[in-house]
Structure formats: structure tokens, C-alpha cells
Design goal:
The chain is built from eleven helices and eight strands. Helices cover about 45% and strands about 10% of the residues. The radius of gyration is 18 Å and the shape is globular. The chain binds thiamine diphosphate (TPP) and magnesium ion.
């Protein structure tokens, strides 16, 4: 299991170092539109993508605005993401999507249209028509949209090979969950006769709830922590729990080495892309 943890850490290191670069570049006024940083939440996609690779499955993936880590975890090309953030035609969405609507045809990653939760009924319809393994990521606030609930019901009724992942950072921009609702997605999914779990973003815990993935519809509500602001480069809470840092301490020197090597590599790639301007 240590090997699994290290493999997940490698993916998370890619995501974290990428986002820290972007954070610094936002401060330098590099980008022309809002940027949604996923740092703090990268362990969800890093773990799920590692499990998919181990199982030799290449799912269709539907994402929303906070998608950089999902894109990178599933090994979509980093240069195309950078170019997208820079608004270039060579970007993954031809420079037209920006941070919120990234996609990768090659990796079956479908970008978002900006309407919170719309990716959920779209993913269910796509899965219903293709019968292919499908993963749809949504935030804890997007999960509240009415059309999400109808889509869950249909996925359950048709026993679709779909994984619903709620990235539950407890926030809708700045509004906490307790202000917005008195129910949890695990119970909603169960009410639709679907298997569902509430877990943390610990890689082994996540791994353990994915055993039946794609043999039946499954929802996992993953509690996680957003490190930076909803959009842009800022920090709400310096003391917030950091899974990435926690794993680095747990894994010791080997993780530190991966972290610093990855940091250097990402900095170089960014530098090269920026010089192309
Ligand atoms: C239907 C709709 N309502 C409101 C918004 C404005 N909006 C954009 S992101 C967001 C919060 C999203 O929260 P969540 O789904 O939990 O994702 P997170 O930003 O926490 O990753 C809101 C309210 C929107 N884009 N679409
Ligand atoms: Mg949220």
C-alpha cells in the first residue's frame, strides 16, 4: 500500500506544484480571466486516476470549474492547459474556455459550460447512451441543483456504470454547507437506491470505497479542503488542513524528493510556455 500512496503522491505533486505556479502568476497579473485553483483538493483526482490506471479503465470524465487537478491527474497535456490559461489558440479549449471550461478530447475529459451541476445530467445521458465507464465530478453546492437529483435517479434506475464524485469543500464560494442545507448527498443517493459513501480525501480510504466502481452506480462524497480563494490568488485560512502536506510528512524523504523534482519540472515547463508569447 506504500507504493500506492507514493504513486498517488506523484500525481498530487504535479497538481500542487502546477497550482502554486499559477497562484504566483495570478499575483503578477498574467491572466485575463478568473482562475479557479484546485490546490488542497488534488488528492481526490490523484487517487481516483491512480485506481483507474491500475484497473486499466479509461473512463469518460465530466468536470466543472475547479478542474485543473482532474485534468492533470488524468495525464492530459500540461502545455495545453497552460496555453488555455494564457488564452492561446493552442490551448486545450482553443483559448476560448479559460480555467473554468478545460477539456481534453484525447483523455475523454468534457469541459464545463458554467451552469453549476449541468455536467451531471449531461454525464448521465452520455453514460446511458454509451454504456461506458463514466466519472462525473461536482462540488457540494452544484450537487444541490434540482437537475442533479433527477439525473441521480435515472442513473440508479438504469443501473449505469457511473461514479458520482462530490468534491465537498464545504463551500459555495464563501457560504458554508450548514447555512445552505440540512441533508447530505450520501443519504440522497441512498434514497435513490444507490450505493454511497462519505469519506475523507485520504488515499487509502478513497481506494477502499471504489471496489464496486462501474459494476453499479456509485456516489462518493469526499470531504476536502480548498486551499485558496474560490477564484484568484488568496488564502482564506492559513491553518486549514492540507492533505498534500500531511502525506508528504507521512511518506518522508521519498515524497520530499518527488515534490522538489516535480516543482523544478513544472517551473521549467511554465517558463518555456511563457517565453513563447
Ligand atoms: C446555476 C448556477 N448558479 C450559480 C452560479 C454561480 N457560481 C459559480 S461557482 C459557484 C459555487 C460552486 O460551488 P461548488 O459546486 O461547491 O464548487 P466549488 O467552487 O466549491 O469547487 C456559484 C454559486 C453558477 N455558475 N451556476
Ligand atoms: Mg464547494
Amino acid at each position: 500500500m506504500r507504493d500506492f500512496r507514493i504513486n498517488v503522491f506523484k500525481r498530487a505533486a504535479l497538481c500542487r506544484n502546477f497550482e502554486v505556479c499559477v497562484f504566483n502568476l495570478i499575483k503578477e497579473d498574467t491572466f485575463k480571466f478568473p482562475i479557479y485553483l484546485s490546490a488542497g483538493q488534488e488528492y481526490i483526482s490523484a487517487t481516483i486516476s491512480e485506481v483507474m490506471e491500475q484497473n486499466n479503465v479509461k473512463p469518460n470524465i465530466f468536470i466543472q470549474h475547479r478542474g485543473h487537478s482532474i485534468y492533470l491527474s488524468f495525464r492530459a497535456p500540461i502545455e495545453k492547459l497552460i496555453d488555455e490559461l494564457l488564452g492561446r489558440k493552442t490551448g486545450c479549449a482553443n483559448g476560448m474556455g479559460g480555467s473554468a471550461s478545460i477539456c481534453s478530447k484525447n483523455k475523454n475529459i468534457y469541459g464545463h459550460d458554467g451552469l453549476m451541476g449541468s455536467q451531471v445530467p449531461i454525464s448521465v445521458g452520455h453514460c446511458y447512451s454509451t454504456s461506458q465507464p463514466t466519472i462525473v465530478f461536482m462540488g457540494d453546492a452544484s450537487a444541490e441543483e434540482d437537475y442533479v437529483l433527477g439525473a441521480l435517479g435515472w442513473a440508479s434506475t438504469k443501473n449505469l456504470p457511473i461514479l458520482f464524485v462530490v468534491e465537498d469543500n464545504n463551500l459555495s464560494i464563501l457560504t458554508e454547507k450548514a447555512v445552505r442545507r440540512n441533508w447530505e448527498m450520501e443519504n440522497v443517493a441512498k434514497a435513490f437506491n444507490m450505493k454511497a459513501f462519505t469519506v475523507s480525501d485520504d488515499p487509502l480510504e478513497l481506494h477502499s470505497v471504489l471496489r464496486t466502481v462501474f459494476t453499479e452506480p456509485l456516489l462518493i462524497n469526499v470531504n476536502t479542503h480548498r486551499k485558496f480563494w474560490h477564484a484568484g490568488a488568496g488564502i482564506d485560512d492559513e491553518e486549514i488542513f492540507d492533505r498534500y502536506k500531511n502525506e508528504m510528512e507521512l511518506l518522508g524523504d521519498v515524497a520530499k524528493q518527488i515534490h522538489f523534482e516535480t516543482q523544478e519540472k513544472i517551473n521549467q515547463i511554465w517558463q518555456k510556455q511563457l517565453e513563447k508569447q
